[in-house]
Amino acid sequence: MIPTLEWTREGVRFLDQTKLPLEETYVLATSYQQVADVITTMVVRGAPAIGVSAAMGVALGVKQSRAAIISDLAAEFDIICNTLAATRPTAVNLFWAIARMRNHFSTLAAQPTATRESISEALIREAQIMYDEDIAACRTMGAHGADLLPESGGVLTHCNAGALATCGYGTALGVIRAAVERGHGIHVYADETRPFLQGARLTAWELMHDNIPTTVLCDNMAASLMRAGKIKAVVVGADRIAANGDVANKIGTYSVAILAKEHGIPFYVAAPWSTIDLATPTGGAIPIEQRPEREVTHHAGKQLTPHGVSIENPAFDVTPAKYVTAIITERGVLRAPYAESLAELEAAAATR
Question: Which residue is catalytic, options 134, 191, 219, 239?
Answer without folding.
Answer: 239
